[in-house]
């Protein structure tokens, strides 16, 4: 039987849908903007999928773990740590130290990159760690690709190999101002199964990549429909589309464009839904995260399941350069709505140049 130390960062991911690009130090502002906590739901989704009772659980009191275990129907656990209210990084680290003292075999946490860093600070490489993805960005390679994959990895812990995986330290203040500043924080030991454990993000800046971005931008600008609303997701490839239109992009946010003019900059979910009420004919343009392959659910939570359903899944346009696609063999969707993720299907056509597209396989770990 595997002994698992389990904790939840209750505020993780709240900043995504309300266009805060992260939640570190911003939980009060996220709530003011109408954000809804999502980490607990993501954790319940993962733990509810575990087959049988083959895990001995150690956890934290109330919202940092105990509530999730109860909601997932798990009634045999030991509470080893009682956090302060509200919880913070110090609680994550203290809980992990308590898990280590209890001799756990694996530390499972639900959160984002900052939570991963705090867990790593306390655990290091003494035991494997695994993240249930609930943050905004999640550039670290310590997360399962979705809650169902996390359940499989937990169930098979001790049987599957571990690998050294990057823990990334992302500067959220810089991120909010449109600059991606990340450094390697360390290498954690993480259970690894292909198509279950996500990779680290890669950035592509070669000369040929820049030419490909220009070609993609020229093609998308050419096929834009008059009076239609275009929701432009985050990334350097989608930013080039905005620049082709003579518009200033929000590199790490979501913009909305109609008839060559910006109608919303760095829009949140609520703004996008309002715009879709006013302009029901719409397209959504996104680019997968390099190497990780996530089309939805990483860094673009403003484009929520409600937004996608309102615009129509058939109006989703995915763009990526050939270099990015070559380093990204598989695509994933983790929108938070399992039914919607399934509706995306088993493959997507990705625009990779001027009137050029590639069809890429989508993996649904369930």
UniProtKB/TrEMBL annotation:
Superkingdom of the source species: Archaea
Signal sequence region: none
Keywords tagged on the record: Kinase, Transferase
Classification via Pfam families: NAD_kinase, NAD_kinase_C
Molecular-function GO term, any one: kinase activity
Gene3D superfamilies per record: Probable inorganic polyphosphate/atp-NAD kinase, domain 1 (3.40.50.10330)
Name of the protein in question: ATP-NAD kinase
Organism: Methanoculleus methanifontis
């Amino acid at each position: 039987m595997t002994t698992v130390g389990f904790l939840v960062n209750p505020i993780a991911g709240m900043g995504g849908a309300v266009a805060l690009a992260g939640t570190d130090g911003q939980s009060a502002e996220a709530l003011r903007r109408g954000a809804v906590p999502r980490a607990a739901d993501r954790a319940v989704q993962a733990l509810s999928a575990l087959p049988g009772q083959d895990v001995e659980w150690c956890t934290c009191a109330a919202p940092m773990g105990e509530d999730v275990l109860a909601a997932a129907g798990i009634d045999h656990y030991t509470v080893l740590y009682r956090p302060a209210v509200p919880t913070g990084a110090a609680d994550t680290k203290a809980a992990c130290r308590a898990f280590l003292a209890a001799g756990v075999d694996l530390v499972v946490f639900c959160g984002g990159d900052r939570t991963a860093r705090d867990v790593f600070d306390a655990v290091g490489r003494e035991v494997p760690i695994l993240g249930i993805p609930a943050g905004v960005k999640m550039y670290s390679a310590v997360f399962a690709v979705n809650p169902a994959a996390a359940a499989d990895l937990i169930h098979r812990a001790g049987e599957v190999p571990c690998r050294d995986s990057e823990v990334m330290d992302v500067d959220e203040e810089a991120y909010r101002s449109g600059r991606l500043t990340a450094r390697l924080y360390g290498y954690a030991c993480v259970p690894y199964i292909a198509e279950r454990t996500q990779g680290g993000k890669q950035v592509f800046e070669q000369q040929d990549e820049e030419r490909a971005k220009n070609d993609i931008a020229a093609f998308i600008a050419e096929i834009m429909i008059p009076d239609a609303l275009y929701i432009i997701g985050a990334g350097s490839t989608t930013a080039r589309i905005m620049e082709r239109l003579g518009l200033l992009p929000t590199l790490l946010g979501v913009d909305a464009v109609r008839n060559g003019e910006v109608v919303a900059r760095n829009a949140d979910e609520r703004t996008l839904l309002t715009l879709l009420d006013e302009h029901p004919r719409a397209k959504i343009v996104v680019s997968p995260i390099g190497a990780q392959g996530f089309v939805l659910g990483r860094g673009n939570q403003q484009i929520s399941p409600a937004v996608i359903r309102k615009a129509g899944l058939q109006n989703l346009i995915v763009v990526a350069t050939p270099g990015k696609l070559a380093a990204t063999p598989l695509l994933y969707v983790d929108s938070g709505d399992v039914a919607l993720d399934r509706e995306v299907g088993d493959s997507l056509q990705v625009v990779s140049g001027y009137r050029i597209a590639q069809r890429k396989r989508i993996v649904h770990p369930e």
